[in-house]
From TrEMBL:
InterPro entries: GDSL, GDSL_Est/Lipase, SGNH_hydro_sf, SGNH_plant_lipase-like. It comes from Dichanthelium oligosanthes. One of its GO terms (biological process) is lipid catabolic process. Keywords: Hydrolase, Lipid degradation, Lipid metabolism, Signal. This is GDSL esterase/lipase. The lineage of its organism: Eukaryota, Viridiplantae, Streptophyta, Embryophyta, Tracheophyta. One of its GO terms (molecular function) is hydrolase activity, acting on ester bonds.
Length: 415
């Protein structure tokens, strides 16, 4: 058994070696094969009796670092090899509040939705405080980044925008998150990436940027807000087909615009079971799911699947993985206890019926945060997000097509 002191000494030695070799220490623990990160798998397993380090005060990133150091000490990983195997160069995130890691906290205005108050972040390892995520801890973007080998989710764009140098440095090193609560297909944040790309090219050159982006992952999760807005207007069913065409046309433009700038590897998450969110259930006297909203989401997901399948052969080098958020929610909700959930209809943190009134410092919290699928009236809890991501990364084939996220990470995106 390696002592804690030995682990710390080795970690310090590696950092000093990195400095001597002009290697940024922040890259030491990121640029390694995803297979190295074995600690943390139990956090994704269903069942009440599985031992997990998913409660305060466990720090997921610390245990990952320690596990890597132990691997080096044991002789399984040569330190000289640590910087040579990089599954993904960087990760760039586009989406709504399910992926937002803090951009909305930088937006002005009283009516901007921000998770900047308790009890958001209550289970966040290391702090237990609000952190820009609509979750009790990590969200989907965090778990995707971590399982792909990154130390953490890339930082929010608006935290970096004031300094062009810092923005370019971060974009070239780990990536940037452009996800924002309220964003949709018709209100995309791709224009901010366009501005970042221009600065990257001006600083590092077109060739270097193109090479980096072709080896990076572009995580996209859009559509939920668009469909919700459409459903709220109660438009006629005859308008649905036209609405789908508009959404798919804009989604296509997002994919192709990113492709033109160098993106090749897309991790796309479809729209979930939106009719079963607490905010949708509360509209029904019995608390039942909205069949209309679920059908609207299913129809859009079919169109998105067709779009991606059609784009791939027409855009050389493009590879993608489409994750089925809708399908995994159907399966979990059909048998919640199989995944360790006792409640899949109401919010753990909320007010009013089904907790759909919003999470705030005066809200009532459920007793066991990990047993609720929803943290608030819309967003999955930390544990629900982790289970989803594990399924998308290397879980059952039914939840991703044509490849899973793990295969995408190691796929070769050609320029």
């Amino acid at each position: 058994m390696v002592s804690e002191l030995a682990v710390k000494i080795l970690a310090l030695s590696l950092v000093l070696g990195a400095v001597a070799g002009s290697i940024r220490p922040s890259k030491l623990l990121r640029q390694v094969p995803a297979a190295i990160f074995v600690l943390g798998n139990n956090n994704y397993l269903p069942g009440k009796n599985i031992p997990r380090a998913d409660q305060p005060y466990y720090d997921f990133s610390f245990f990952r670092k320690k596990n890597l150091m132990l691997g080096v000490v044991a002789g399984n990983i040569r330190p000289s090899k640590m910087l040579q195997q990089v599954p993904a160069a960087a990760i760039y995130v586009f989406g709504d509040s399910t992926l937002d890691v803090g951009n909305n906290n930088y937006l002005p205005g009283k009516n901007v939705p921000r998770p900047d108050r308790p009890f958001y972040g209550i289970d966040m390892p290391g702090s237990g405080k609000p952190n820009g995520r609509f979750s009790n801890g990590y969200n989907t973007a965090d778990f995707v980044a971590k399982i792909m080998g990154f130390m953490s989710s890339p930082p929010p764009y608006l935290s970096l925008a004031p300094s062009s140098d810092n923005l370019v440095l971060t974009a070239m090193d780990t990536g940037v998150s452009y996800a924002s609560s309220g964003a949709g297909i018709l209100d995309s944040t791709v224009q901010y990436f366009n501005a970042t790309w221009s600065k990257m090219v001006a600083s590092k050159g077109f060739g270097a940027v193109s090479t980096l982006l072709s080896r990076s992952v572009f995580l996209i999760g859009l559509g939920g807000n668009d469909l919700s807005a459409f459903a709220n207007t109660q438009q006629a069913q005859s308008d649905v087909a036209a609405f789908y065409r508009i959404l798919i046309s804009n989604y296509k433009a997002t994919i192709t615009d990113l492709y033109t700038m160098g993106a090749r590897k897309y991790a796309v998450i479809n729209v979930g079971l939106s009719g079963c969110l607490p905010v949708a259930r509360v509209l029904d006297p019995t608390g039942a799911c909205s069949t209309t909203r679920n059908k609207l989401a299913a129809g859009f997901n079919d169109a998105l699947r067709s779009l991606l399948a059609g784009l791939a052969p027409r855009l050389p080098g493009l590879v993608y993985s489409l994750a089925d958020s809708y399908g995994i929610m159907v399966d979990i909700f059909a048998d919640p206890q199989a995944s360790g959930f006792t409640d899949v209809s109401s919010a753990c943190c909320g007010t009013g019926r089904l907790g759909a009134g919003g999470c705030s410092p005066t809200s009532t919290l459920c007793a066991n945060h990990g047993q609720h699928y929803f943290w608030d009236g819309i967003h999955p809890s930390q544990r629900a997000a982790s289970l989803r991501v594990q399924a998308f990364y290397d879980g059952p084939a039914m939840y991703t097509t044509p490849i899973n996220f793990k295969q995408l990470v190691f796929a070769s995106g050609t320029q």
